[in-house]
Amino acid sequence: MDLLLVGALLALAWIHHRKTIERYGHLGLLLPPIAAAYLFYLGTRLHVTTDSNSRLSNTMVYEASLVACTGIMLWALSGRWVGVLKLAPVMYLGRISYTVYLIHVTALYLARRAFHNTAAMAAMAFAMTLAYATLSWRFMELPLLGRNPKESSVLITSQS
Asked: Which domain holds residue 15?
């Protein structure tokens, strides 16, 4: 619920304080590295990770990701330096992001069973997630949307 709350608060802030967000929202880019440092501290000093699946670890990890995402949203709303968001790979990732969200935990679980090296596990989970989300978009979502997949290759890169 905290994610929905922050989204609603950002929407209200945008309505009532748009000029302030446009002026200072780019400072939101400071929040993701702060959240990453906090996660690093939690993992190395307190051994708090999502693997432990405890109330404390889940709360700390997910709240840190909330802070990072809030910072990114503030930056995007500021309109400064956001050209990167219009790059085709970023737009495509946005298009398949819901399926990425749905499948990434399963991909991590499967990759963790196959690899003991963290980098190899992360790379495999990333590859499996993107492959599944791409196939889902192409063979399930596009037909459900009533779009012709041959014509939709243009839509993937030209629509936001």
From this structure: 1-84
Residue 84 φ/ψ, nearest 5 degrees: -60, -30
Residues in the chain: 160
Same domain as 80, residue 7: yes
pLDDT tens digit sequence for 121-160: 999 999 999 999 999 999 999 999 887 666 555 455 555 4
- 94 and 127 share one domain: yes
Query: What SS3 state is found at 2?
Result: helix
Sign of CA dihedral 85, 140, 124, 48: positive
pTM: 0.71
- Distance between CA atoms of residues 71 and 27, nearest Å: 8
d(CA 153, CA 146): 14
